[in-house]
Every structure is written in C-alpha cells, then in structure tokens.
Specification:
Layout lengths: L1 H20 L14 E5 L2 H4 L2 H10 L14 E5 L13 E7 L7 E6 L7 E7 L2 H10 L1 H20 L5 H11 L1 E2 L7 E5 L3 E7 L4 E10 L8 H15 L8 E4 L7 E7 L2 E13 L4 E11 L4 E10 L6 H12 L2 E2 L2
Length: 329
C-alpha cells in the first residue's frame, strides 16, 4: 500500500514542478508604507497646475493629530520610471494624456500589478481636463486610499489575534471585536475595559465603555464629549495625583461624523485627548452606537500616546481595529 501511495504522489509533484518550470508565477503582494501614493506623470506636469491640484487635495493637513501631517503623501515619478518595483506599490495614480479622447475618464482598478494594490488611471485629452477630472473625484480618491489602507491593516492583524481578550470583551459587553495578538488587557470592569499595546516609545490603546441610554442621549459633539469626559475622569487617572484623561476642546475641537456601520447609526468622533493636571496628550478616535435592546450606549475608542512624533498612521491603525467592532444580539 505504501508503494502505491508513493507512486501516486510522485506524478503529482512532477506535474506541479513542471507547471512552475513552464512559466507559472505567483502574483506579488503590493508594498509601500501606509498613506503613500505613487503618482505617475512627467516632471513638467508635476510642476504645473496639475501637480498643484494634486498637492492641494492630498497634502491638505490631516485633522485631529497633534503635529502637521498630510492626509496622504505623494511621491511623483515620470512614466519612464514606472517599472519593476514601482509598479508593485500599494497605491498608484497614473496619468494618461491622449488627445484623441473626447472626454476625461477615471478607472479604479484593484490588484492590477500586485495583490492588495489600488490603481487609479486618470485619462484625459489634455492637462486642463485632467485637472477637472481630478477635482471631480477628490473626495472619492481620498476615501478610496484611506479605506484601502484600513482594510490592509485589518487583514494583517486578523491573522494573529488575541482571542482571550476578544472573548472577555464579548462576554462582558456583548461586543464583538478583533484584538491583535500584541495587545494586553489592563482593566476589565462592569462598564469599562482598557486594552493596550505598550512599546518602548509609544502607547496604542483601546477603551470599551458603556453608559445608560436616556431621553437626553443624542449624537452631538457636545453630548459625546460630556459623556466621554465623565467616563475618562472616573477610569483613566494620570500619573500625578488628581490628574486624569479628558478631551481637548480649547486648541482643537473634536470632529463628528455620522455613518452607518454594521447596520447601525454610528457616531465617529476624532479629536485630541489631554491629561488634566499633567502634560500628556495625543489623538483619539471613537465609534459610538446605541444598543436599544439593552438600553445603553456603547463606545469603542482608540488613542495614541507618542510625544513629539507623528501619529497619523498609528491612529488610523487603531481605527482599523475599531472598525471590526459590532454589537452582538
């Protein structure tokens, strides 16, 4: 029986090797840093109105981070350099000027040259029409690249998760969420959990908290800040006596966006936190939902502490974790 088994396996292996030796190639995975976009257009165009328009769109300042950072970072190369390694970048905008075109057209393509790649081809009869087309899709393009980075982060940390913490959060709060393996549970109370990843120079952490649903509950910035500050004052003390985490409202007021997330209206708030009575702060993002069957409000929040350093990508990575959260019926 063993001889027959081996005889069956050998032809299969030979066929596999033969297939690979005759041109089979594995599709490469896209590379590049989060928030980076390769822009393929010639140098003269980059220094003209077209380039100015691209910089105005993508190099606008990212809100709700303590230091000045672009929404996305552009790296321009001429068409002649769009070869080999550059073709495998995660985010690409490719300019195509064709005088025979009657109108501009934008194509959104995934996995064109590599897995997990977003490729945007903007074709136009001339530079003026290219600028119009770019301006037309400015918000869609930013959303596209930000969501692509978010989905890549989710895919990455979902391969190695801390199921023990996720199960405790599910059991205690009826909240389903994916927790990366390098996060640890700091606090687990009846209505508040603190989960963190501590590195040598920075901290990335999550809060899960709930409070009663009342007639005065509303998804306004003022109300959410009010409730957030109550929870944090009680549960997140600073290192000095009498200090505690709170919301920065004097120098940078939080931004509120209402979306539908996993079938529920969700208040997404982005802003800066600080420690009352101490000199600490950084960015935060929170997703708040109303759990009507249990008559409560549920918030999952992430914050970064990385003093005097760039935090844009870290808070976006935390938002990727938060994006996996859902209320379990």
């Amino acid at each position: 029986m063993k001889k027959q088994y081996l005889l069956v396996i050998v032809p299969i292996l030979m066929a596999f090797i033969s297939c690979n030796s005759t041109g089979y190639k594995k599709t490469p995975t896209a590379h590049g840093n989060p928030g980076d976009i390769i822009v393929v257009l010639n140098n003269e165009t980059w220094n003209s109105e077209a380039g100015d328009t691209m910089r105005a769109i993508f190099h606008d300042y990212c809100p709700s981070v303590p230091l000045e950072e672009h929404i996305l970072d552009l790296h321009q190369i001429p068409h002649g350099e769009f070869i080999d390694h550059n073709m495998l970048h995660r985010n690409i905008i490719y300019q195509e000027i064709d005088p025979e075109l009657t109108e501009a057209k934008t194509s959104f393509i995934t996995d064109k040259y590599a897995v997990n790649q977003v490729f945007v081809n903007i074709a136009a009869p001339n530079q003026a029409e290219f600028v119009k087309e770019l301006s037309k899709y400015r918000h869609s393009l930013i959303k596209l690249f930000l969501e692509a980075d978010r989905d890549r982060w989710i895919a990455a940390f979902s391969r190695n998760v801390n199921k023990i913490i996720a199960d405790k959060v599910l059991k205690n709060y009826n909240v389903s969420i994916t927790i990366p393996a390098n996060y640890y549970l700091d606090e687990l109370r009846d209505d508040f959990a603190w989960i963190s990843h501590e590195a040598r120079q920075y901290t990335m952490a999550l809060f899960v908290y709930t409070y009663p649903l009342t007639d005065s509950t509303e998804f306004t910035t003022e109300y959410l800040i009010q409730e957030r500050n109550k929870i944090l004052k009680e549960n997140v003390p600073g290192s000095k006596e009498g200090s505690y985490m709170t919301t920065e409202v004097k120098y940078d007021y939080p931004i509120l966006e209402k979306i539908t997330h996993n079938g529920l209206e969700t208040a997404v708030m982005r802003g800066l936190w600080r420690v009352h009575g101490d000199f600490m702060g950084g960015p935060f993002v929170s997703y708040t939902k109303i759990d009507k069957p249990r008559q409560r409000v549920v918030c999952v929040e992430g914050y970064v502490y990385y003093p005097n350093e760039l935090t844009r990508d870290k808070i976006r990575q935390l938002e990727g974790i938060i994006f996996t959260y859902d209320l379990v019926k």
